[in-house]
Amino acid sequence: MADEAKPAAAPQAGQVPPQPVLKVLTQYVRDMSFENVAAQKGKTPKGQPNFNVQVGLDAQKKGDKHYEVVIKLQVTATSEEDKLFILEIEYAGLFEVDNVAEQQMHPFLLIECPRQIFPYLRRIVSDITHDGGFPPLNLDNIDFLTLYQQELQRRAQSEAAAASKN
Asked: Tens digit of pLDDT for each residue in 78-127?
């Protein structure tokens, strides 16, 4: 007799609800571009560069309990008004997620999943900038909770502005 998958029963009074399950199945560079602008212009960087780091997140369902989460990172380095390099990278993870309520899935995917793969992205960015002829760029930690909250606020303001125009 084959085992049948049974849906998880709702916890009864006094029972602890099942803990969320998060498994990283794989992670990979989905897309990457590094442009050494300084070398192309024949310039030698002078002084301490300034970095502009922009982060975006995306998540989509890939199957039953499987989700792809992508961190989209763009780093522009400048020195004395000259661009030194531009790095664009999309780093993705494929996750198995279970025991997360549907209303909590969106924040879970865009906060917890990026936290799991960010250290690997940080190492890749360091290697790319070093291999590109610059000192390794060691990214600061990213607070994905704050980033998520800021995106919700931005969307709410956008929707309010659009509604006020109509």
From this structure: 988 789 999 999 999 999 999 999 999 999 999 999 999 999 999 999 99
Reported in sequence order, the residue ranges of 37-166 that DSSP labels E, i.e. its strands, are 50-63, 66-79, 82-98
* Among the listed residues 59, 79, 56, 83, the one whose alpha carbon sits nearest the alpha carbon of residue 69: 59
Q: Helices (H) and strands (E) in the chain — how many of each?
A: 4, 4
Amino acid of residue 138: N
Partners of 34 in the beta sheet? 87
Q: Please say whether the dihedral angle defined by the alpha carbons of residues 114, 115, 117 and 123, taken in this order, is positive or negative.
A: positive
Domain ranges of the chain: 21-161
**Fold classification of 21-161 (topology level):** Bacterial Protein-export protein SecB (3.10.420)
Backbone angles phi and psi of 58, in degrees to 5: -150, 145
- Using one digit for the tens of pLDDT, what is the confidence trace for 13-62? 667 778 999 999 999 999 999 999 988 888 877 778 899 999 999 999 99
Q: From the CB of residue 91, how many other CB atoms can be counted at a distance below 10 Å?
A: 23
Helix (H, G, I), strand (E, B) or coil at 104: helix
Please give the Cα distance from 164 to 156 (Å, whole number). 12
**CA–CA separation, 68 and 93 (whole Å):** 6
Q: Is 18 helix (H, G, I), strand (E, B) or coil?
A: coil
DSSP summary character for residue 1: -
